[in-house]
Amino acid sequence: MFNNIGVSGLILILAIALIVFGPSKLPQLGRAFGDTLREFRNSTRNIMDESERDHLIESEDKKRL
Q1: What is the pLDDT of residue 52?
Q2: Where are the beta strands (DSSP E) in the chain?
Q3: Distance CA 13, CA 8 (A)
Q4: Please, which of 9, 11, 22, 31 could form a disulfide with 5 given CB 3.0 to 4.6 Å?
Q5: Calpha distance 34→40 (Å, rounded)
Q6: Does this model's pTM top 0.85?
Q7: How far is CA 18 from the centre of its chain?
Q8: Cα(first)–Cα(last) distance of the chain, in Å?
Q9: Residue 1 Cα distances to 4, 5, 22, 29, 37, angstroms
Q10: Could you read off the pLDDT of 12-54 as tens digits, one per residue?
Q11: Which pLDDT score, from 0 to 100, does residue 2 have?
């Protein structure tokens, strides 16, 4: 999705964000965005771990039969 955004595109997005939100709000927005990404990554990792654990349990049950 973001593969086609170059350096000039990122600079343009940052300039618009600076104009809209102002310099005092940008660090708070960046921190909130980082926290959201971290939480999403942790949730995804937990879901994958649960899925792998369920798959291992199912394959062990099949081996027993």
Answers
A1: 86
A2: none
A3: 9
A4: 9
A5: 10
A6: no
A7: 23
A8: 46
A9: 7, 9, 27, 21, 16
A10: 988 998 899 888 888 898 899 899 999 999 999 989 888 888 8
A11: 58
